[in-house]
Amino acid sequence: MRLLRPALAACASRRIVLLQPPHPPQALALAALGLDPSQLLWLRSTRSADALWAAEQVLRSGSCGALLFWANHVRSDSLRRLHLAAQGGETLFFMLRPLSAAQDASPAPLRLALRPAAGGMTVDFIKRRGPQRDAPLFLPLGSSLLQRHAPLDRPVFAPATARSLQPTLVQ
Amino acid sequence: MALSKAAHIEGVLPGMRRGGVLMLMPDARIVQRSHEREAEALQAVAMAMLQYTPQVALAEEATLLLDIGASLRLFGGIRQLCAQVRANLRTLGFTGCIACAPTARGAWLLARRDAGRAVKMDSLVRRLNRLPVSLLPPARPFAAWFDGLGCRRLDELQRLPRPGLQRRCGRALLDMLDAAYGHSPELLQWIEPPERFQARLELFDRLEHADLLLAGAHHLVLQMTGWLCARQLAVERILLLLEHERGRVACPPTAVEVALAEPTWRDEHLMRLLRERLAKLELVAPVIGIRLEAQQLQAMAPPTDSLFPDPGGSEEDRMRMIELLVARLGTDNVLQALPHADYRPEIANAWVPVHEKMSAAARAAQMPPDVQSLPRPSWLLAKPLALLMRDHRPFYGSPLRVASNPERIEAGWWSQTQTRDYFIAEGKDHALYWIYRERINGSGEDAAPRWFLHGLFG
């Protein structure tokens, strides 16, 4: 979430939808990151078909600023449908999947693999526009959370982000 | 008598007896003609057509006359309008012939004969001239006489001397001819939409699956659209009642109530919501009829006066999307954040269904004064997870090393006392966790402090 913070803060005037996150999000933490709690919408569903349908409806309506979708298993034709729906609107669409899905094909224009590392996180570029980049990028994520000198990283569930409508990377 | 296309192909002709029909098509279904049902059907179609123009009149022989002179530009021209009317008829479950003419009687004649559209007066005159005389109801008793005269078409009828025609056939025939050719004005009785809307549809079969009811629901919703347009109202809540069998196994009708955040008078959004609701509905008994009532009505809102639409869509679009999500996922699964002013993190992180409203001032009052000072993880586990201890260190995938100063939270003495010391811990894979230690232990046998995992930093 801290990686996505600048991108999400840019569209904070409209709603941000969290679809099927692995754990309940904490509104105060996201408020500390700069996202207004009144603009957050948390969707959860028991069946993956319902989750995919909800993602498509959110993308088609085009009235939300960003959609973050956590999914474990998605078929490639569902991915393509979501990609088409995202291209038809202005919603930022981030899809977060486990690292094991990095091998599968996906229609997203930018795909990153995120892993926590000492002092920040390493970003592997699986797919991007332009030349292929094999060297991973290290992003130091400094934060005032820790008083001691300690690194700050993402939790264990670091997924492969299959992303559509790519914004500029975090500076 | 009316035949379906399949019957026509088999060779059944109008005027055949029942035995003859059954000999040609053994599995033909013969239904008695019921005038009440025909009148009901006509009334239903008339109500649905009110959305195009407030001037709809019922004419003889199952015909509807719509005065669309003022509606042409709104609906994009005559072809678009006819296509929309045809689509609506198909949704309502009927077939019809559509014809247009500058005069009402001319349109009636063209529709009876399915003779196409005439937009200008001279093309109307040309088409009318080709129609047979038997099409005019006042001329039908004198068909033999006209035949003897050799007068078969309307243009020949026009050439006959008028005083003679009037003496022989009566005034009605001449009036009708004048009206059709536009020589005399016409006065029609427009139908009045009723005060309250209530429509009913009897289904042919007993239906067991709720999603098959969608077509019937669309039929009723189209009628309601027409009524709303005629009365210039928008509906906020509709009630769809599914009637079950009568008699010994009678049970009260199942009610499906759909409430909208923004009142609407068009059918697309209502149909989307009804589709989701009916897909989830479980029927207790087979359904034999459906009834639709419009419950909460408001005046129609005027169109917006801003030139460019907002980039994020209007507030209406947002509400519609949320309603659709709620209809499919359920009210408890579409949640908005409403942080509660409490020190305990799991109580502070309250998410409520999206329709609950709270004013912005009340919302701001519940937020802590300085959000940046509290180190909170992005993800909070639904229930704290007890951690194993290894080498006197809490263990979650890898030994966790405490990496920050403790934060002591003691609250909830009125219900469930919570005395915890929260730490930010780091695992071997450099992932950050939010763990806490219970400060006061319950029973004396377990003297070591217990560690729990409560959140993950994202």
Provide an overview of this structure.
The complex is a heterodimer of chains A (171) and B (458). Chain A has helices spanning 5-10, 27-32, 48-61, 76-87; strands at residues 15-19, 40-43, 64-70, 92-98, 110-117, 120-127, 137-140, 159-164. Chain A is of the alpha/beta class and 171 residues long. In chain A, strands 2-1-3-4-8-5-6-7 form an 8-stranded mixed β-sheet. In chain A, strand 5 and strand 6 form a beta hairpin. In chain A, helix 3 runs parallel beside helix 4. Chain B has 458 residues and is α+β, with helices and mostly antiparallel strands. Chain B is elongated and about 120 Å long. The N and C termini of chain B lie far apart (74 Å). At the A-B interface, helix 2, strand 2 and helix 3 of A face helix 13, strand 7 and strand 9 of B.
The helicity of chain B comes to 25-40%
Tell me the structural class of chain B. Answer: alpha+beta
**H-E string of chain A:** HEHEHEHEEEEE
By secondary-structure content and strand pairing, the structural class of chain A works out as alpha/beta
How many runs of DSSP E, i.e. beta strands of chain B?
16
Q: Give the helix level of chain A as a range of percent.
A: 10-25%
Largest sheet of chain A: 8 strands, mixed
Task: State which percent range the strand residues of chain A make up.
Answer: 25-35%
Low-confidence stretches of chain B: none
Give a short overview.
Helices cover 22% and strands 29% of the residues of chain A. Chain A is α/β, with parallel strands linked by helices. Chain A has one domain (5-164): 3-Layer(aba) Sandwich (Rossmann fold), CATH 3.40.50.300.
Task: Show the helix and strand layout.
The complex is a heterodimer of chains A (171) and B (458).
Chain A: H1 5-10, E1 15-19, H2 27-32, E2 40-43, H3 48-61, E3 64-70, H4 76-87, E4 92-98, E5 110-117, E6 120-127, E7 137-140, E8 159-164
Parallel strand pairs in A: 1-2, 1-3, 3-4
Antiparallel strand pairs in A: 4-8, 5-6, 5-8, 6-7
Chain B: H1 5-10, H2 18-24, H3 35-49, E1 56-59, E2 63-66, H4 78-92, H5 104-113, H6 121-129, H7 143-149, H8 154-159, H9 162-169, H10 171-181, E3 198-207, H11 214-231, E4 233-244, E5 254-264, H12 267-280, E6 287-299, H13 315-329, E7 334-337, H14 345-348, E8 351-353, H15 360-366, E9 379-386, E10 388-390, E11 393-395, E12 401-402, E13 407-411, E14 418-426, E15 432-438, E16 451-456
Antiparallel strand pairs in B: 1-2, 3-6, 4-5, 4-6, 7-8, 9-16, 10-11, 12-14, 13-14, 14-15, 15-16
